Amino acid sequence: MKKALLLGLALLLVSSAAHAQYGYIALFTDDARTAWCVTGTGFYPADVWIWCLPGVNGQICAEFAIGYPSNVIGSTVTWNEPLISVFLGDLPNGLSVCFVDCQHDWFWIVHMALWVTDPIPAYIEILPHPGAGVYQFANCLEGYPVEPCTKLTNFYVNYGPEEPECGVLGVEDTSWGAIKSIFE
Hints:
This protein has about 180 residues and is mostly beta strands. It has a single domain (about 25-160), classed as Immunoglobulin-like (Sandwich). It has helices at about 1-20, 175-184, and strands at about 25-30, 35-40, 45-55, 60-65, 70-80, 85-90, 95-105, 105-115, 120-125, 135-140, 145-150, 155. Strands 1, 2, 3, 4, 5, 6, 7, 8, 9, 10, 11 and 12 form a twelve-stranded mixed sheet that branches. The chain is globular.
């Protein structure tokens, strides 16, 4: 029984590892990537950071758009200028952005200061770039081929920490030895 369970777990991890070869794009409320939900009363400010985690082949560019709900007003946008070499377009209509160097770890592209105008729950989301039809990254292999990326989080306004959308991300590191010890 233990061997069958261990084999099933190994197959699950192998399929997860195949998916993990591609990167992630996410929206967070802080530069430490700890939360993606805000709540307040009346007219209140919120910060949104667009973060990327490159896949195994690194990341040199990204294409995506951002969808804003009607109860969110943009205030200021701060670009991670030392990192960005060129960008075309804008966030709501589609953005293509490339970086000075190949990225291999978490990095942020944009920090947005916003205002939430009412208490109605809504969310900001990463959308496919209208010109490409997808959100995607260009990796750092020769020729900079594009590859899919995974949207990790939306950004929820007027959602409290008790809401399921505001749960915890399961991104802990582990080893085969730790997994095997569970079944011994």
